[in-house]
Amino acid sequence: MARPGASSAHQLRAPSRWSTAVVGRRVAQGLLDAVLSSLLPLLSLSLFLVAPLGAGGAGEGLFAAVSLLVLLLAITAHAWYWVARPISRRGQTTGMRMTGIRVVSADGMPVTRGALLVRWLVLPVDLPLIGLLSMLLSARHQRLGDRLADTVVIRDR
């Protein structure tokens, strides 16, 4: 049965065990995406480190403001990469596209923004060992974030 508001053209069949047997690809994808999703935050941090802020009274307030701005930029960049961007790319990050996998809802429907948000919020817990163990012990190779978001990662090619 299709979800309310879901187009039948986007409805997929429920993922099979074979289509979710992508642990090796997910490890490669995780490494690629860890690097790619950190580029913008690292760039902003490097700009912050070379910016002359001065010392003393006014400099401390400026330092705190710039620190908060860098933190917000890093969080926003990560959220864009892991949540907003995959919605417009058939459930794929750049690393997923490169390794031939994508995330879908457990029923085979396209992944929702809410599910991607849950997966992203749990990502720090899943990396590196908990997620790998969870994938190896799960019949559908789901990490903790997948289980909580009711998603699976499938072969795309």
From TrEMBL:
Q: Does the keyword Membrane apply?
A: yes
Q: Where in the cell is it found?
A: Membrane
- Major localization class: membrane
Top-level division of the source organism's lineage: Bacteria
Question: What UniProt keywords apply to this chain's record, in alphabetical order?
Answer: Membrane, Transmembrane, Transmembrane helix
Segments passing through the bilayer: 34-55, 62-83, 117-137
Name all RDD domain ranges.
21-149
Looking up InterPro entries in the UniProt record yields:
RDD (IPR010432)
Query: How is the protein disposed in the membrane?
Result: Multi-pass membrane protein
**One Gene Ontology cellular component annotation held by this UniProt entry:** membrane
PANTHER family tied to this protein: SLR0254 PROTEIN
Record-given protein name: Putative RDD family membrane protein YckC
